């Protein structure tokens, strides 16, 4: 950026990531589904295409930077997939239906391609979670999470495709002045309750593993 006459923070940025954080603030599983498993997964979808465009324009140096960023994005998405699966296991929920429900409820735009299925498969993100064309004729009934997600039948893939809006580019995000907004006591209590259940199950599993190791 310095070579191009700019410094970090000089350029306007959209607030899609912050919108996703705000939308998913009430439930840990929603946050994992929306941010690392969907918003960051867009980097897996777009990285290769952007690299090809830069190479075609003769900018191999920028292409190498974008390729590195896209590769690093794999770890971000993989962490989200891992913890989402572990959280669902701890709470006794089916991950596929829950993931689809959160995306349908909070940001259906993230269910619109094009997708890089090869890259998403590398991080163990199942296609029948995020791609409506791979959903069954009648999607499974949505699992109702404790965070208050809607209890409704998810639409079939073909029906959903007709309802999806065009890509949302986000709004210009002004620089913040002052402290960041805080969650309310009710929101914090809801998060604490979910994390307490998860921590209890994880702690029990860890104790069992340690016990087996000692044996």
Task: Furnish the topology, listing elements before pairings.
Elements: H1 16-23, H2 28-39, H3 41-56, H4 60-91, H5 95-106, H6 117-122, H7 127-130, H8 157-163, H9 185-214
Biased composition (Basic residues): 166-176
Region (Disordered): 141-182
InterPro entries: DUF455, Ferritin-like_SF
Number of helices, counting only DSSP H or I runs of 4 residues or more: 9
Taken together, the total number of domains comes to 2
Distance between the termini: 56 Å
Radius of gyration: 20 Å
- Contiguous low-pLDDT stretches (5 residues minimum) are 140-173
Number of strands: 0
Structure description:
The protein has 215 residues and is mainly α. It folds into 2 domains: 20-143; 183-215. The protein has helices spanning 16-23, 28-39, 41-56, 60-91, 95-106, 117-122, 127-130, 157-163, 185-214. The longest helix has 32 residues, at 60-91. Mean pLDDT is 77; it is low at 140-173. Pfam families: DUF455. Residues 141-182 are annotated as: Disordered.
């Amino acid at each position: 950026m310095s070579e191009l006459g700019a410094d970090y923070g000089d350029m306007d940025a959209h607030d899609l990531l912050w919108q996703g954080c705000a939308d998913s603030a009430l439930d840990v599983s929603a946050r994992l589904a929306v941010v690392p498993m969907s918003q960051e997964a867009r980097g897996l979808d777009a990285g290769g295409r952007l690299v090809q465009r830069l190479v075609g324009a003769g900018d191999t140096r920028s292409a190498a930077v974008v390729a590195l960023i896209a590769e690093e994005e794999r770890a971000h998405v993989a962490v989200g997939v891992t913890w989402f699966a572990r959280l669902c296991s701890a709470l006794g929920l089916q991950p596929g239906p829950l993931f689809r429900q959160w995306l349908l409820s909070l940001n259906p735009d993230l269910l619109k391609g094009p997708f890089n299925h090869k890259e998403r498969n590398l991080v163990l993100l199942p296609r029948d979670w995020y791609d409506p064309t791979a959903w069954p004729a009648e999607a499974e009934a949505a699992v109702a999470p404790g965070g208050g997600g809607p209890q409704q039948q998810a639409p079939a893939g073909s029906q959903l495709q007709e309802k999806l809006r065009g890509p949302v580019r986000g709004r210009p995000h002004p620089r913040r002045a002052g402290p960041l907004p805080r969650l309310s006591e009710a929101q914090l209590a809801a998060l604490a309750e979910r994390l307490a259940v998860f921590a209890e199950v994880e702690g029990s599993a860890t104790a069992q593993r340690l016990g087996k190791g000692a044996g």
